[in-house]
Amino acid sequence: MRFPVLILAGTVVCAAGLSAPGCRSANDASLETLEYAKSTISLDSEPAARLIDANRVEVDGTATNHDKFQHDVYFTATLWDANGAAVGAATGKLEDWPAGHHGAYKLVGDTKSPKWARVSVVVSNVKEHVRGQTED
Fold first, then answer.
1. CA distance linking residue 89 with residue 66, whole number of Å
2. Is the pTM of this model over 0.85?
3. Is the separation of the CB atoms in 58 and 50 below 8 Å?
4. Which of 69, 73, 89, 119 has the fewest CB atoms found within 10 Å of its own CB?
5. Cα distance between residue 41 and residue 128, in whole Å
6. What are phi and psi of 116, to 5 degrees?
7. Alpha carbons 5 and 16: distance in angstroms, whole number
8. How far apart are CA 13 and CA 20, in angstroms?
9. Are 135 and 86 in contact (CB under 8 A)?
10. What is the per-residue burial (b if ≥16 Cβ within 10 Å, else e) of 78-117?
11. Contact yes or no for 59/46 (Cβ under 8 A)
12. Helix, strand or coil for residue 105?
């Protein structure tokens, strides 16, 4: 008789707001915050930038989705001159990027100068399976 009482008690706890961690589903998107989802994406290579037109730039690199969820991952690259001033930017995304996958990104944007000293890339947003972020 004690076993059915424990099952009933566990069911009541789960039904009362899913307060027990064991009651949550692995598909519960509310477990993912934006900052946590961003932290699970690693930038694996140095970004490489090149001009594709007079003021159009393309930035390539690789990254890995270490999360347990598929995501739409948005990247932003900034091109910096030798004085540390931003002279260009490029954006792009990996859409429906599976959990655990390594992939190449290609970002496209504009530059004010055909000469830059360095390029930096950040994960600017993550959507899909993230609390407060809609799916594309």
1. 26
2. no
3. yes
4. 89
5. 14
6. -140, 155
7. 16
8. 7
9. no
10. bbebeeeeebbbbebbbeebeeeeeeebebebebeeeebe
11. no
12. strand
Q: 32-127: what CATH class?
A: mainly beta
Tell me the two tokens of residue 74: 């948005």
Reading the block at residue 37, the tokens are 């989802």
> What is the distance between the alpha carbons of residues 75 and 56, in angstroms, rounded to a whole number?
17
- Residue-by-residue pLDDT tens, the chain, 136 positions: 444 433 433 433 334 333 333 333 444 445 578 899 899 999 999 999 999 998 999 999 999 999 999 999 999 999 999 999 999 999 999 999 999 999 999 999 999 998 999 999 999 999 887 776 666 5
Domain ranges of the chain: 1-26, 32-127
How far are the Cα atoms of 44, 56, 58, 60, 72 from residue 47, in angstroms, in the given order?
9, 16, 10, 6, 19
